[in-house]
Every structure is written in C-alpha cells, then in structure tokens.
C-alpha cells in the first residue's frame, strides 16, 4: 500500500491501542462527550423566569379573590344536602386571606387575573415543548420514578445519601409536572363553575356544579401545599432563588 496512506492508518492504530489501555483517543473523546441540546442555554431561561414570577403574583391574587367568592357560600355540597366529609361547613376563612372586599369585588379580581393566568400558561407550555425544555423538566416514570422515591426517602432521613444529581431530581420533576396538571384542572373546573349551563358538558365531567367546586377548592389546597414545600426547599438552597432571577450559569 502506498506510504501516503500510512499516517492515517498509524493514527487509527494508536487510537485503538489507547482505547484498549483505558486512554481514549481524540475520536473516542468526541463520542463520549456529545454536544448537549442545551449547551449555551442558562439553567433558567428568560421565558421560564418571566412565567415563574408572573405566576407568583397571579396565584396570590386569584387565591385571595377566590376565597372572597367562596365566602358567598362557604360550604361544599348543595344547600340542605351538604357533604358530611367536609369538616369546615359554613366556616369563613380569615379576612387577611381574602381580596376584593365583597362578592362583586372578588369576582372582578378573579376573572380579570384568570385570563392573564391562562395566557401565561399557554405561553409557558408553548415554550416548554418547542424549546425542548420538557426533556429535562418533565417527569417521565421510566426515568424518574426510582429517583423520586429515593429523594423522598432522603428527605425523610430514611436514606442517608441523596440520589445521583441531575438537572432536577426525580421528585422535583414529579412536583413541577403535577403543578401543570393542577393548573389545568383549576382552569377547567373554574370554567365549569363560571358557566355551568353553557359549558354543561364540562360541568358533567366534574360531577356537576358542586363537584366542580370541590375540585376547584382541592386544587387551591394542593397549590398551597406545593408552595409551602417549595419555599421550604428553596430556603435550604438559596442559590436557586438567585438562579431564578439571573438565570444561573450557562450549560
């Protein structure tokens, strides 16, 4: 074979020898270190930061105004046939938790902010899927279930060591994906309460008008529990607050 072909062959032999000795050559290094789809992107891209802080405002306003509306009938179940399992029938919520001052004021606040919440959610989901962020943020059981359980056991001090660190751990992905589902249920149940006759097909999916009220209130309780846990965990890792403001380092 001509000598002009020797250098490439020699280089190929050296790479194979290096790989067999545990010292990958340039070709092997390129294969084991693929370019990430998120290279150059911040941990928390600007669109996600905008949605996050807007939602913080919207949810507070909607929760307060929603509780003001709830005060018009602070019970669950039809009048005269209230649900026995709900222990707070007829009990008003504290005044400091309500926004709007009265039923009409609460409705005005609630419905005005609701549309901003919906638009914010549409913007987030559009970016979430088109940008590919769903790949590293969405909970996928076959990838994240074991990690979520391990992380939960670690928080309970049953497991000594946390699971392998990733962009988000499995429990975080489960929580953040669940919040998207909660938000969707809140919007749909809210529409069923708002227009129970015009959207009767939607109202029926929730078991009627009173069923939609139960789902809507349950969604508020789940959001509140998520927020409480979120604030506790973020306080343990204050760098995450800064990342949600600045975007954090680039990948």
Q: Can you walk through the features of this model?
A:
The chain is mainly alpha-helical and 251 residues long. It has 2 domains: 1-34; 43-246, Transmembrane di-heme cytochromes, Chain C (Fumarate Reductase Cytochrome B subunit). Helices cover 64% and strands 0% of the residues. The radius of gyration is 26 Å and the shape is globular.
In short:
The protein has 251 residues and is mostly helical. It has helices at 6-20, 26-32, 46-70, 103-130, 134-137, 141-155, 170-194, 200-205, 209-236, 239-246.
The domain tally reads: 2
Large-scale geometry: globular
- The helix-and-strand class reads mainly alpha
What string, H for helix and E for strand, traces the elements in order? Answer: HHHHHHHHHH
Helix content: 55-70%
The biggest sheet, with number of strands, parallel, antiparallel or mixed sense and barrel status, is: none
Oligomer: single chain
Number of helices, counting only DSSP H or I runs of 4 residues or more: 10
Query: Can you say what the CATH homologous superfamily of the largest domain is?
Result: Transmembrane di-heme cytochromes, Chain C
Please indicate the percent range of residues in DSSP E strands (runs of 2 or more): under 5%
For the secondary structure, the number of strands is: 0
Low-confidence stretches: 1-10, 16-35
Radius of gyration: 26 Å
Terminal-residue CA separation? 46 Å
